[in-house]
Amino acid sequence: MTKEKVLVALKKVHYAGNEKDIVTAGIVQDLSIEKYYISFSLIVDTNDADIRLKLKSESIKAIKENVNKDAIIKVAFQNKPVAETAYEQEQKAPLSGVKK
Q: What is the Rg, in whole angstroms, of the alpha carbon atoms belonging to the chain?
């Protein structure tokens, strides 16, 4: 098993509402392989349990069907960082006329 083979398998999985596969979209992170153990994180912008479960099960299925049916796979989820709004950026800016 190689990272390349796992990534090719994961390219068969698509995130709901996104035309790109999860690898091309940059959703797959921290891929690690040790013997029959494969672990990786999926960076998503939803807490919807159904979407997460679907992504996880489709990822596992793709790896077992295309890489190794006996692989032990751990999929973790991380929330996608949210960009700061203009208001939040403004609040961090130093006050004009105030010296440190």
A: 19
Residue 84 has pLDDT above 60, yes or no: no
Identify the bridge partners of residue 37 per DSSP, sorted by sequence position.
34, 72
Q: What is the CATH number of the domain that holds 42?
A: 3.30.300.130
pTM for the structure as a whole: 0.76
Q: What is the Cα–Cα distance from 7 to 47, expressed in whole angstroms? A: 24
The span from the CA of 93 to the CA of 6, in Å, is 44
Extended strands (E) in the chain: 28-34, 37-44, 72-79
CA distance 66 to 5: 8
**How would residue 45 be classed by pLDDT, with cut points 50, 70 and 90?**
confident
Domain presence at residue 52: yes
